[in-house]
Amino acid sequence: MKEKNWLKSYGLIILTGIVVGIAALVLTAVGNPKNMGFCIACFERDIAGALGLHSAGKVQYMRPEIIGIVLGSMVAALAAKEFRARAGSSPAIRFVLGLFVMIGALVFLGCPLRMVIRLGGGDLTAVIGLLGFLAGILVGVVFLKKGFSLGRAYSVRKSEGFMLPGVMVVLLVLLVAAPQLLKFSEEGPGSMRAFWIISLVAGLVVGLLAQRSRLCMAGGLRDAFMLRDFTLLSGFLAIWITITIGNLIMGKYNLGMLSQPIAHTQHLWSFLGMALAGWGSILLGGCPLRQLILAGEGNGDSAVTVLGMVVGAAIAHNFGMAGNPDSVVDGVYKVGGTSTVGMVAVVLGFVVLAAISVTHLPGKENA
Amino acid sequence: MVDTRGLSCPIPVVMVQQAIKKDAPAKLEVLADAKVAVENITRLATTNGYQVSVVEDGLDFKLTLTK
User: Fold this and answer.
1) What's B59's domain CATH number?
2) What is the bridge-based pairing of β-strands B2-3 and B27-32?
3) In this complex, do B8 and A82 lie within 8 Å of one another by their Cβ atoms?
4) Residues B21-47 pLDDT 10s
5) Which of A54, A80, A134, B32 is at 20 to 30 A from A268, Cα to Cα?
6) Residue A156: its chain B contacts at CB < 8 A?
């Protein structure tokens, strides 16, 4: 009986974690960048580039994984009768939070999902990111316990709920039927891509399972700290373990800090970037992956958050805030990391998040 | 009655957690409008020794937590 309950509680979320891990490994094997089979921040940044919102030539591609995740979530939500168009919970604030979550993630070089994928590849610089993510989540939890809320959302017309999935369909049509209208990288991470049908199917499967299991990278740690509920955390750990085992089997596990794929050793800013992403994710109610899933379920506020993240990615690259990976130039190891502008943006992000956190506590309704 | 309708995850479960901590009521009624909130509240309540019954009311859910 106990075994049955355990399976009921943890079976689907662990299965989702394993599938996400396998999907990341497969996508990397068939063309996606190393330790980046699935990265929500990086792929939304690539989409921003494909649309010409930024002109960083190395990170431009219409990533079908993102399209698939939103559409997979929509299909799952419709099938389970969970699709509900709703909006109105501080959309402008969510846009700004999405923007800063993206800037923090790009300073680190990856969203929380890629952080776990990097950990699974043996990239120890991601441990610094994990510590920062934990710190940001703990700060967010303090405000949650004090009663932080962005307010209620309300039922709206169905067209609002179908807007982001609709945008994703248009992007897919552009990718397949009119790629000449888009910008595609010829070198760098944006040029490394799996065949689009494989990416789309991987996205659809992950979107479907993540909608059913409620997988969330930030939610896992938040629930463990705040509620002593380890359900979502088990999905987080399942991804980590699956990718670690997969990389060990394929001989691609490289334990260390130096020369890790698309990563830097500017540790302080890795920590702070992910702290910003963690705190912002807690205020938003979920990590970047979860925002895509919620948008697929008809949540207009999450759709606005996703758009904020895309704009944040464009800003990060237009103003040189995104981290640069470490590299070897003429045989000399060159430490990458973010620029002064990126550091200022992260600090500004903390100030904005603090202001939003404080002004959305009970008793501050007129703030 | 704790009304969590329209509030995004994890606020509903935090509200219920605080209501349980504050008074440890023998019976608590909760309104929710998302399946994920129902799941999370049910998990929390069960862990805290409550039995949970859920009734669908249109697009909303009414949860009754009893000890």
Assistant:
1) 3.30.110.40
2) parallel
3) no
4) 988 899 999 999 999 999 999 999 999
5) A54
6) none
